[in-house]
Amino acid sequence: MTSVLGGKIIWGITLLMMMGILTSCVPEEDAVEGSGDNYLRIGDVQIIWGETSTTNVTFSILFSETPTITTTPTTPSSGYSTNVSLSSVSKEGFTLTSLGTPYGNMTVHWQAIGKYK
Questions:
Q1: What domains can be seen in the chain, in order of their start residue?
Q2: H or E stretch covering 8
Q3: Quick check: pTM over 0.90?
Q4: 67 preceded by cis ω (within 30°)?
Q5: How far is CA 15 from CA 47, 60, 103, in A?
Q6: pLDDT in tens, 47-82
Q7: N or C: which terminal CB in the chain sees fewer CB atoms within 10 Å?
């Protein structure tokens, strides 16, 4: 249980740090342009985040260019693999490979950052 909690804390801290960096670099007139469930837009940058236990993720709103993806895998207990790879990334979503042993016993927290205009 510690690894799952630790993963969520690290994931949350990472997201807050990225938001802080972006907000300090964006002029006030380009501040938050929109936000909703699991997304934020600042200037022409969009951040979407979520979690999955499947291999294919489709973004709820699209990017105008291929975004950068970060992932943080967590497992239900020790003894499982936490090896995750991105096999493809597009403006519409991404595909993961190596989702745990046995397959599918992993939750992956993810963040996508890129342009939406």
A1: 2-115 (2.60.40.3940)
A2: helix 2-25
A3: no
A4: no
A5: 9, 18, 27
A6: 999 999 888 999 999 999 999 999 988 876 666 667
A7: N
